[in-house]
Amino acid sequence: MAQSGRFQLSVRVLAVLASEPDAMHTSAAIAEALKESAVMVRRTFLLLHKAGLIEQKKGPHGGAKLTIPAKQIGLGDVFEATAGDWLSIEDKAVSVWIKKVRADAVKAMNEHSLAGVVKRLKKTK
Questions:
Q1: What is the pTM of this model?
Q2: Number of domains in the chain
Q3: Is residue 13's pLDDT more than 90?
């Protein structure tokens, strides 16, 4: 899946988790709610868990939930969790400049929180 797809699915998954922050949500339930593949939701869980945005629990009462409140999760944090290697450029001068551009973009994205996304989603329903 391309970066934009991973980012979009991650935001949507986190929005579901933020809607009931104290409940554990299974990948199957989220996949059904979002009309997505459970496999893709589980892969998204792995990225978000590795970034420290969600906690996971196995077993019959398992699933995932946010580790921090939605208002403290910036969209830049989600981007960083899903981005991987953004661009690989051999020219050192250009590479340094691209890293700065990425850092600026992440900072700007972090001005918008997951809570804001959830609020906007509720307004559109």
A1: 0.87
A2: 1
A3: yes
